[in-house]
Amino acid sequence: MSHKSNSLKRLALQKFKKNFWGVFSFGFIVLVGLVAIFAYVFAPDNSQYANQMHLSIHSKQPGFKVDMLTIPSQLKNHQSWLNKVFFGKKNTDTEIPISKYSVEKAMLMYKEYASDGLEGVEKTIPLSTFPNNQVNDYIKERYFLFGTDKYGRDLLSRVLVGARISFFIGFVAVFISLFIGIFMGSISGYFGGKIDAVVMWIINVTWSIPTLLLVIAITLALGKGFWQVFIAVGLTMWVEVARVVRGQIISTKEMQYVTAARALGFNDIRIITRHILPNIMAPVIVISAANFAGAILIESGLSFLGIGAQPPMASWGAMIKDHYNYIILGKPYLAIIPGLCIMSLVMAFMLTGNALRDALDVKS
Questions:
Q1: Three-class SS of residue 224?
Q2: Does 104 map to a domain?
Q3: Residue 278: which domain range?
Q4: What is the C-alpha separation between 321 and 299, in angstroms, rounded?
Q5: Rounded CA gap, 32 and 166, in Å?
Q6: Could you tell me if 229 and 299 are in contact, meaning their C-beta atoms sit under 8 angstroms apart?
Q7: Euclidean distance between CA atoms 360 and 115, whole angstroms
Q8: Cα-flanking dihedrals φ and ψ of residue 279, to 5°?
Q9: What whole-number distance in Å separates Cα of residue 217 and Cα of residue 220?
Q10: Does residue 265 come out as left (phi exceeding 0), alpha (psi in the -120 to 50 range) or beta?
């Protein structure tokens, strides 16, 4: 039995490997996952939430370059390297975009950057402000691959850090939906009768409420925030899982191996968890992939409405909300780039789910 099970797993894996778009999408999901985990390592702006603002260089085109003067702070930053990698650097230094500078009589003279043909303000600062008077170490050319947003923040860094919200909400929401959905669907399908009627009534009532409206209600009840959104989305996605599990158990509980388990005296919990659920997980895995995509879209919608992840936290949906009016102002990339990120990740999960469905289909 174990050898046969392993053979079926290998056969499913081989079928999945032959699906180019499924493998490609799965690789893309893994890549986005690594970027989400180590976002601050890859982001040019590794400050917390990539929130370093420079209003003088707001809404610049992709590929924009400018000299950036960093004035070191006298405050000591006690932060471990591990904290910097996963949560960003607590930046206490002051960064100023400049157009030109010169050193005269132990003073640094610089002109602040100004766009639209305006003249920047000329200022001076003692060289003693910089360690060992090495001012050249604190003036570097900054390159903005995706340009800057309306607050002068690096758009590429915001996109990379924003991947965390969209990616991890899928995991948390799917985990919550699986935990509730499998439990409710299992007891409903296995025991039937009044338990099935009560569970189905709860499922039907929950399903009759528009998903976005239900998420908004739960979010308002729990409060605005990072984890509140995750929980709210998860609490609205369990009904699909419950209906699938219920239907699968109803068609499986009369199989011979379940009858044999009852004859051997196994209790109901063991029969459900050790015998039935392992044999019906294929459709659950497929619907989980679809729920990943659904969770990303719901979170993006909530952030667009302003009740998702709150500023200064980076979120793809919030980035679209901040810049959707720029589409008609000649700078559509500010909204299109995060929109393409959402579309790509959702498409990857959907294609992976389709590939898993084909691979786990024993009839094909």
A1: coil
A2: yes
A3: 2-34+156-360
A4: 13
A5: 10
A6: yes
A7: 58
A8: -90, -5
A9: 5
A10: left
How far apart CA 247 and CA 111 sit, in angstroms, is 70
Co-location of 139 and 215 in the same domain: no
pTM for this predicted structure: 0.86
Name the token pair of 232. Answer: 């709210």
| Region class of 125: left (phi > 0), else alpha (psi between -120 and 50), else beta | beta
Q: How far is CA 15 from CA 25, 231, 314, 361, in A?
A: 15, 35, 38, 10
Assign 109 to helix, strand or coil.
Answer: strand
Give pLDDT tens digits for 131-179.
877 888 889 999 999 999 999 999 999 999 999 888 888 888 888 989 9
Whole-number Å distance between alpha carbons of 63 and 56: 16
| pLDDT at 363 exceeding the cut of 70 | no
For the chain, how many structural domains are there in total? Answer: 2
Q: Ranked by mean pLDDT, which of 197-201, 265-269, 295-299 comes out on top?
A: 197-201
Q: Could you tell me if 64 and 23 lie in one domain?
A: no
